[in-house]
Amino acid sequence: MASILEAWRERTARRRTWVEGKHLVKEARRILKRRGRDLSEDVVASIKSAADEVDEALRGTDPEQARRAISTLDERMEQNLSSVRKSTLREYSESIGVAIAIALVLRAFVVEAFQIPSGSMIPTLEVGDHIFVSKFAYGLGIPFTNVKILELKQPDRGDVIVFKYPIEPGTDYIKRVVGLPGDVVEVRQHEVFINGHAMPRERVAVPCHYSDSSHAGSGIEDHDCEEWVETLGEKRHATIQEPGRGHDFSRTVVPPGNVFVMGDNRDNSSDSRVWGTVQHDLIKGKALIIWWSRAPTEGWNLVNWFKSIRWERFFQIVR
């Protein structure tokens, strides 16, 4: 056992030496490339020679020789290049800064994480689902504004979109696109009519029940329901409705540059039936995939927290 541990330590030390040597050689050659013209020929030659010796030692099998070569190169750099060498703090700061910048660019233009706060999209999305939203699906906009600088396509019927709530733009909502510009939308006894035609749907003959904890102060509420599969163009998706609930919605024409949106949880969704249509400029992106999901729990308990993770929902495509 001791020999195995010793061999592991030796491999780890060699690996650390190799990484340290490669990093130091890279730093030395980068400085010479950028600042070599400002240094004397003797200094440049000395640094190059020491860097080559490190490279050769790292290709060999003697770790002590490699450590001596690394030490020599580090000493020569400290003597001659100390004014231009980056400090460790500066290197870490720059690396972190680059990582943050890349993350901000991705979030602003490509993809953004979004947490489902309410049960309005059950059964497609549940409270506690975390999804990725494609901000490039419909075009490119200027971050923190509603200005679009590149428009790729328009939302389609059936798309699940994230958008700024028209009444309170600082809040994000997520719903499904039902009506496009110029469409006449109407709801009669739970049936959705588009341009006078009932949206095709089929009843799913299975028991339907769901829990919703999204209403503040109300705890976890249980609901009995009916599940239906609707067809919007070429897209099929599940919806639920509650017997005895639901209200008719009179015919309305979707204005140009707008979409009519509804939640898949038809009787527990505040959507275009309540506050009107959504302008294209307010759309942030299209829902792509669920990357994490955990059911809400009352109080804090580590065991219950782990039990509440919905493993089966991980990496589900949002349809």
Net shape: elongated
- Secondary-structure-based class equals alpha+beta
Strand content: 25-35%
Oligomer: single chain
- The parts where pLDDT drops under 50 for at least 5 residues are none
Q: Give me the count of strands.
A: 17
Number of helices: 6
End-to-end distance? 54 Å
Helix and strand run = HHHHEEEEEEEEEEEEEEHEEHE
Architecture overview:
By secondary structure, the chain is of the alpha+beta class. Helices cover 33% and strands 31% of the residues. The chain has helices at residues 2-35, 41-59, 63-81, 88-109, 272-275, 302-307; strands spanning 111-115, 129-134, 139-141, 148-151, 160-164, 172-179, 184-188, 191-194, 197-198, 201-212, 221-232, 235-241, 249-253, 258-262, 278-279, 283-293, 316-317. The longest helix has 34 residues, at 2-35. The model has no long low-confidence stretch (mean pLDDT 87).
Task: Write the SSE topology.
Elements: H1 2-35, H2 41-59, H3 63-81, H4 88-109, E1 111-115, E2 129-134, E3 139-141, E4 148-151, E5 160-164, E6 172-179, E7 184-188, E8 191-194, E9 197-198, E10 201-212, E11 221-232, E12 235-241, E13 249-253, E14 258-262, H5 272-275, E15 278-279, E16 283-293, H6 302-307, E17 316-317
Antiparallel strand pairs: 1-2, 2-16, 3-4, 5-6, 5-16, 6-14, 7-8, 7-13, 8-9, 10-11, 11-12, 14-15, 16-17
Helix pairs in contact: 1-2, 1-3, 2-3
Briefly summarize what is shown.
The protein is an alpha+beta fold and 319 residues long.
What are the key terms here?
single chain; 319 residues; alpha+beta; 8-stranded antiparallel beta sheet; 4-stranded antiparallel beta sheet; 6 helices; elongated
